[in-house]
Amino acid sequence: MDKLLDQLILIAGAWSESENPAIEFQFAVAFEELKQTTGFDHAAAEALLQRHIAGSVAA
């Protein structure tokens, strides 16, 4: 799951730099995969991603 979270962070970074709709779609697909993998709803998956980002920044 960490690999998927890392992938989401990379996609989000690319999306924020380019605002490319194709990258936005990649993020949406990966986020849905995270939700399916964890069984979380949108809010819980987003919170998980945010905690992972905070942990990555702190490390």
Describe the structure.
- There is one protein chain.
- By secondary structure, the chain is mainly alpha-helical.
- Helix content is 88%, strand content 0%.
- The chain has helices spanning 2-18, 21-38, 42-58.
- The chain is globular, with a radius of gyration of 11 Å.
Task: Characterize this entry briefly.
The protein is an all-alpha fold. It contains 3 helices and no strands. The mean pLDDT is 89.
First-residue to last-residue Cα separation: 18 Å
Proportion of residues in helical segments: over 70%
The sequence of SSEs as H and E is HHH
* Main beta sheet strand tally, sense and closure: none
Poorly predicted residue ranges? none
Global outline: globular
Radius of gyration: 11 Å
Return the average pLDDT rounded to an integer.
89
Structural class: mainly alpha
How many distinct beta strands?
A: 0
Q: What labels would you give this structure?
A:
mainly alpha; 59 residues
Write the layout of secondary structure elements.
Blueprint: H1 2-18, H2 21-38, H3 42-58
Helix pairs in contact: 1-2, 2-3
